[in-house]
Amino acid sequence: MMTILLSDTGKRFNRDWIFRHLTYTFEAGNSYAITGPNGSGKSTLLQAISGSLQVSEGNILYSTANNQISIEDVYRQVSICAPYLELVEEMTLAEFLSFHQNFKDFIPGITTEKIISTLTLENAAHKQIRYYSSGMKQRVKLAQCIFSNTAIVLLDEPCTNLDTTGIDLYHQLIEEYCSKRTVVVSSNDKVEYDFCKNVISILDYKS
To answer: Which end of the chain is more exposed for a tag (fewer CB within 10 A), N or C?
Structure first.
């Protein structure tokens, strides 16, 4: 369980502020949506929360049970699914999921076989991911993120390329595996974040 505290944070590229004066606490076990138009900076804020992008001003602090976590160790507690993060397409799905566990363990009780079955990709388990449809690839991205044993789950436009069945699967995964984790969804589509209990508009932090 991890809490993330943003204190008067801001990020700019050159002279343009993407967001500024953002003070907010992401409580452990709660769900949050970051909303705003395309190009408004939702993904930038999500990357800052993940610890992969340094803010230009202010601070982001991470803690569990009142113990602060250094920024160098935050990645161990964070999993992310985003359109700009690519899969290793030369691998088969079975190879990719096994490879992924060298970096982050899966949730206890979850196996490669269980994930493949949940994604209904048994017939494609030994096919190179490069031959998958865009919807199949998105399912794999979601699985890599949600089944990782992390306290924080970050989802950037998580239903990209998914059909109705895929969207249903997304909500099933959230309900079954994310109820006790901190979930942050970056989206302007309510279908993707309608389960979130808290909504943050990035337009409120533009000046």
So the answer is: C
Residue 53 burial (CB count, 10 A): 16
CB 42 within 8 Å of CB 34: yes
Helix, strand, or coil (residue 76): helix
Domain of 94, CATH number, reads: 3.40.50.300
Number of domains in the chain: 1
For tokens 């202010």, the residue is 58
Q: Residues for the chain: how many in total? A: 207
Contact by Cβ (8 Å): 88, 99? yes
Residue in 172, 160, 180 with CA at minimum distance from that of residue 1: 180
Q: Count each helix (H run) and each strand (E run) in the chain, helices first.
A: 6, 9
Alpha-carbon distance of 94 to 87, in angstroms, equals: 13
How many other C-beta atoms are found inside a 10 Å radius of the C-beta of residue 12? 14
11-55 per-position pLDDT tens digit: 999 999 999 999 999 998 999 999 999 999 999 999 999 999 999
Q: Answer yes or no: pTM beyond 0.85.
A: yes
DSSP classification of residue 106: B
Range of the domain at 169: 3-205
